[in-house]
Amino acid sequence: MPTTKLCLIRHGETAWNTERRLQGHTDIPLNAKGALQARQMAQALKDINLTFDVLYTSDLKRAADTANAVVELFGVEANVDSAFRERHFGALQGMSTTEAPLLRPDIWQAHISRDLEHDLEGGESIGQFALRVQNALDKIKVKTTLAERRNLEEVANALLKDTGIKTAIIREYLPVMNKLINKYLNAMDAYIHFELDESFNESVKSRFRDDFTYASFSEGEKMRIDLAILFTWRQVAKMKNSVNTNLLLLDEIFDSSLDTAGTDYFLNLMNSFGENSNIFVISHKGDQLFDKFRSVIKFEKRNDFSVIATQ
Questions:
Q1: pLDDT digits (tens, 9 = 90+) for 235-255
Q2: Which of the following CATH numbers is that of domain 15-158: 3.30.450.20, 3.60.130.10, 3.40.50.1240, 2.40.50.840?
Q3: Is 304 left (phi over 0), alpha (psi -120 to 50) or beta?
Q4: Which CATH class is domain 165-310?
């Protein structure tokens, strides 16, 4: 689970700080010393190689100007939010810590005793103040989660679109794929040169000279091309996968447009796969293919169900 680190920065000195006055929501700017403190603080953070993903500041000038020192040095954008103002001190606001006990002793007592419910007469209680800040942090959390999800979707989109990682993977395997396709075509007596590009557009040349398209060929020739591509994908899967690719199911391949010569070439090709390959051929031409395979399972229809007749 990712961890969010918060770096809390207090604003620099103001004139009211030197006078020990309660500022609250009163917009008091930094004095000269406070501006210098802000710059020194930003440089200190830079010196320890601290980085920020996002920066938030109160809208009060003393806080915003302190944040601007970080903005200038780190090149980040400050998000200004009044929800991050300090506590509103109500009737005590503007009074010094010497004046307040004399002028409003009751309220001052509530303040120094950290009464959680007292709003200091028109200000905020500690509970209200804490809730305001917590709500602001919760909104940032939601906003950050949505931003992270959006970034993840953008990265996924970049990876999965045609110009993304798929293209890089395809580019790596294309030479092997094209070599295998033509190897299988030659094995089935189809003397054409077939190539796929990164977008899987085909380039077909007969006798390596005349340009053709897939649609230019007879159905039997198309079947040879289809099978060559099928076997190529199977071989690439065997090269890439960590598990054995030793099962091949062929449904009605021999019932298609392959001619007698194409069928013989195809059978020879299947026999070259070796003893570790399990090949199952489903065909309605059982009588014609009976002697082509070492094992045959025959099915017949009984009451609209297929059942094993003989083996």
A1: 888 777 766 667 777 777 777
A2: 3.40.50.1240
A3: left
A4: alpha beta
